Amino acid sequence: MASLPAHIGAAPGNLPPNVCQLPRTGQLAALLTGLRNKETSRGAFVFYADRVNRLLVEEGLNHLPVLEKGLEYQGVDFEGKICGVSIMRAGESMEAGLRECCRAVRIGKILIQRDEETAQAKLFYAKLPDDIANRYCLLLDPMLATGGSAIKAIEVLLDHGVPQERIIFLNLVSCPEGLKAMYDAYPQVKIVTAWVDEALNEHKYIVPGLGDFGDRYFTSS
């Protein structure tokens, strides 16, 4: 297998123990390169994002517990019911990838925005399956910067009876600061990320990042 350049192939060290990063393959690096390029058209951006989303969902499903199932063939099945919960609006871009892997999966939505006065994440809307407390939840949001929105979303899930250990957070691009904040707040929540970037800058933006994901995915240029 061809190796990546050292500065691309080397994943950041000392990640929290609840973090699983996708292998830094040439395919994944190429997809992220397309996503980061500001000249990438919206159609191409959506294509690249959907490819990575599918990889994330498939890896996320690998972390769900299974039970033995079968008679002549000793197989397995997922231990419990699954649902997706997207953090609007960027997280909605990941719903199609989840539905491709889990037919007829239930999906909830959470809208969280930053309060301009307090700079804290504030819940504006939540619509979740009635039986979410009995499900494993795949929480969807493509970007993890400070971790404020994801932490608030997890708080909402906990308030609805979902245990930490039943939550798996899926995201495309994260940074060490956000991952640490998530671990400090909810260490039992599993995180599956496609790529860990270098850091946050003074404006709390991910470096190098890829811009406003929601705008690039949903808005025609």
From TrEMBL:
Cofactor(s) for this UniProt protein: Mg(2+)
Pathway given in the UniProt record: Pyrimidine metabolism; UMP biosynthesis via salvage pathway; UMP from uracil: step 1/1
E.C. number: 2.4.2.9
A Pfam family recorded for this sequence: UPRTase
Entry keyword set: Allosteric enzyme, Glycosyltransferase, GTP-binding, Nucleotide-binding, Transferase
Keyword Transport on entry: no
GO biological process terms on file: pyrimidine-containing compound salvage
GO molecular function: GTP binding; uracil phosphoribosyltransferase activity
Domain Phosphoribosyltransferase: 24-219
SUPFAM superfamilies, alphabetized: PRTase-like
Highest taxon above the source species: Eukaryota
NCBIfam families assigned to the protein according to its UniProt record, in alphabetical order: PRK00129.1
Protein family membership: Belongs to the UPRTase family.
Record protein name field: uracil phosphoribosyltransferase
Organism: Rhodotorula paludigena
